[in-house]
Amino acid sequence: MSIVSYQLIDNIGVIQLNNPPVNALSQALRQGLQQAITAAQNDSSQALVLICEGRTFIAGADISEFGKPPSSPSLGEMLTSIEDSQKPVIAAIHGTALGGGFETALACHYRCAAATAKVGLPEVKLGLLPGAGGTQRTPRLAGVEVALELITSGNPIGALQAEQAGLIDRVVDGDLLEGALAYARELVADAAPLRRVRDITIDTATVPAELFDNYKTKLARRARGQIAPLHIVSCVEAAVELPFEEGLKCERERFMECMQSTQSGAMRHMFFAEREAAKIKGLDRGTATREINSVAVIGGGTMGGGIAMNFANVGIPVKLLEISDEALQRGLGIIEKNYGITVSKGKLSETQKEHCLSLIDGTTNYDDLADVDLVIEAVFENLDIKKQVFSQLDSACKPGAILATNTSYQDVDLIAAATRRPADVIGLHFFSPANVMKLLEVVRGEKTSDEVIATTMKLAKTIRKVPVLSRVCYGFIGNRMLRHYAREAQLCLIEGSTPERIDTVMQNWGMAMGPLAVGDLAGMDIAYNARKALTDEQKGNPKTYCIPDALVEMGRLGQKSGAGYYNYDAKTRARSSDVGVIQLVEEKAAAQGVARREINDEEILNRLIFALINEGAKILEEGIAQRPGDIDVVYAFGYGFPVSRGGPMHYADTVGLQKVYDTLNQFHQQTGEAYWQPAALLEELVSAGKTFKEWAS
Ligand code: T1G
To answer: Domain check: are 332 and 349 in the same one?
Structure first.
């Protein structure tokens, strides 16, 4: 079927687009649509309906064309053809009309939509702004405040809400084409005018004077350091103050500035990297997958409870198994409490909460797991305990049941070896809080079957997670790299910096939280107890843990104890500095024979981030991660790495691998530490003048 088709149905011309998978506005689609509009001016049609085949109306400009030379007709030229049509053009929307797709609908004279449709302008999530009139037409139809929220948030709204806002004229029940044809005939019968959105003037008296300034202040906090949101406000302001053509010119200029920004390049990279990560090299796309209609979770602690919620949230029944009734009730209580918090935030209704809870059953008997399709073990982080659990699961569960471990560090192959079905064993590493964090590391063992890998990668999307495949190593992808980042944070601290300085540098750079504040959030007793099980040699340089050890031994575990690197207000959890911590740091430095010195912001940043990059390069060399973009996805979705920097490996490409390489060598010469030796892959890429991205392609 051609990409654009046309048919006359009585006196209505129907233009049908068909550009799978999402009817993105490629050059061919823009050209075909413009030609169809032009041709229809001369036939017997009295109105035109624009509708799409497949799962959705146009979902935006074709992002894969960005950065390439512009091709004609531009989106703006195509939209002008629609708006200048001498016959009313009616957009018939289903699925998600997003970005340039919704801008196309806005250039039409009328809009109807299926009740399940959504519309939105998500460009800001790509570091962009609507570049085809969206910032000019949306406020003309829906008013300034609706436009500002829709465009700066980038979140779609449903058809009914859009209708209330004036963005959609008619919500259609039943068959969309039938409904759109009926609407078009109604408009023709009423001799409805050619209603061009561009001709609407916004009454400035309806716009609160301080609205734009207040918005810019709010965005400066919410979207710290991002260019696009502030440009969006300026464009909407132009829609109020300037004639349409001049407002369009302002939008175009600011759009190009965003398009050429490093930020947008990073965010567009992340868009594709997230989708690429779900694809498994060497695995046939047709690999069979198993049905997962029931799940069991072993261990009702914080992680087990959160994991169970993910499945209940999408309607999959869960059996939660604990070793005693008391532990089970405690676990079920955690889940109930978590749902209560979600309800109190307005993100879930009481009815939805009750429905989810009804899907979660408790048991202390492995026999009750005989029919489940998947089990996820989330017991104490100890290999012997996990092996014992898997041996029991191997006996209790049906053939073909997938046995997964949520371990953060233990060797999945050794766990699999505790069963007679290693091909059915895999790692599913959730991130705390498990019902909130999007990242899911899927850890394939040496013997894990393709079918089990394909099944779990697909299941990740079902439970609204972002999956990244990893092979087995200590800490898999994220935590293995994090150890180096954390090591440098500790060394910067003992060598002369402070928790405030280190955290401020990293947070200003874009991390969601600084490393020491993260330690307080997670609770330092966890790593402290893990270290207790290690020999001195395994623990490594005492400078990297003597301070957190001392804090834990003082009872300063972090937020959970009201104090850690910082003091925390009991009610608001607001953090404040504690001079006693600095004194402790100075004492420990002296005890370790460290002469403290001034460490500048650039050194802090480069030591922490380049340590991540270097370990990421080693992870690629070893084939632990499939591609650099996968590592970027892990850090953006699991560790609060700023999407506007694209992830550690993309950031290395933007900084330039030569600079990364030279800085690593400088650290290596200064410290003599082997871990500062640049990874072989990095050395290879630098000598070949290549980037990580080029290596991956
Ligand atoms: N361009 C190119 N490819 C796209 C695409 C797009 N806009 N949207 C999706 N794809 C591909 C995607 O890479 C994947 O490919 C497949 O379609 C399915 O996507 C001028 C400048 C629409 C909600 O930001 O939000 O318009 O991996 O896995 O989960 O102002 O895709 O199969 O090879 O995500 O069902 C604005 C982005 C662009 C929307 C569907 N539009 N897309 O979700 O499928 S900028 C967007 C999405 C713009 C104008 C500006 C989602 C979706 P592959 P998927 P999904």
So the answer is: yes
Report residue 307's pLDDT band, with 50, 70 and 90 as the boundaries.
Answer: very high
pLDDT tens for 132-176 read 999 999 999 999 999 999 999 999 999 999 999 999 999 999 999
The answer to whether 145 is a known catalytic residue is no
In whole angstroms, what is the distance from residue 561 CA to residue 519 CA? 12
Active-site residue 103, yes or no?
yes
Dihedral of CA atoms 193, 194, 196, 201 in degrees, nearest 10, equals -30
DSSP of 423-451, one letter per residue? GGEEEEEE-SSTTT--EEEEEE-TT--HH
Q: Are strands 12-17 and 4-9 parallel, antiparallel or unpaired?
A: antiparallel
> Ligand 1 within 6 A of 24 CB?
yes
Q: Is 130 in the pocket of ligand 1 (CB under 6 A)?
A: yes
Q: Is residue 72 part of a domain?
A: yes
Whose tokens are 């041996």? That residue is 391
Percent of the chain topping pLDDT 70: 100
Is residue 412 located within the same domain as residue 544?
no
The reply to whether ligand 1 has any atom less than 6 angstroms from the CB of 59 is yes
CA distances from 20 to 15, 62, 494, 663 (A): 16, 11, 56, 45
pTM for the full predicted model: 0.93
**pLDDT per residue as tens digits for the range 197-251:** 999 999 988 898 899 999 999 998 888 889 999 999 999 999 999 999 999 999 9
Does any ligand 1 atom lie closer than 6 A to the CB of residue 98? Answer: yes
Evaluate: CB of 123 within 6 angstroms of ligand 1: yes
Mean confidence (pLDDT) of the chain = 95
Q: How far is the CA of 97 from the centre of ligand 1 (A)?
A: 11
Helix (H) or strand (E) holding 297: strand 295-298
Identify the residue whose tokens are 């074709």. 62
State whether 252 and 302 are in the same domain: no
Taking the centre of ligand 1 as the mean of its atom positions, its distance from the CA of residue 26, in whole angstroms, is 12
218 belongs to a structural domain: yes
Apex 259 CA angle, 685 and 106, nearest 5: 145
Averaged pLDDT for residues 616-640: 97
The conformational region for residue 127 under phi > 0 = left, psi -120 to 50 = alpha, else beta, is left
Tell me, yes or no, whether 333 and 208 share the same domain.
Answer: no
Residue 412 belongs to domain spanning: 295-474
Measured CA to CA, the distance from residue 447 to residue 586 in angstroms comes to 50
Query: Which residue CA neighbors atom 42 of ligand 1 most closely?
Result: 59
Ligand 1 in reach of 75 Cβ (< 6 A): yes
Mutate which of 23, 29, 63 for ligand 1 pocket (most atoms within 8 A of beta carbon): 63
**d(CA 22, ligand 1 centre) in Å:** 7
Residue 1 has pLDDT above 70, yes or no: no
Number of domains in the chain: 3
Domain CATH for 495? 1.10.1040.10
Residue 251 lies inside a defined structural domain of this protein: yes
Residue of 560 and 294 predicted with greater confidence: 294
Q: Which amino acid is at 478?
A: G
* Statement to judge: residues 414 and 530 lie in one domain: no
Verify whether ligand 1 is closer than 6 Å to residue 122 (CB atom): yes
Question: Looking at the structure, do residues 519 and 577 belong to the same domain, yes or no?
Answer: yes
Q: Tokens at residue 559, please?
A: 């937020």
Whether 254 and 110 map to the same domain: the answer is yes
Cα–Cα distance measured from residue 528 to residue 388, given in angstroms and rounded to the nearest whole number: 25
Through-space distance between the first and last CA atoms of the chain, rounded to whole angstroms: 31
Q: How far is the CA of 98 from the centre of ligand 1 (A)?
A: 9
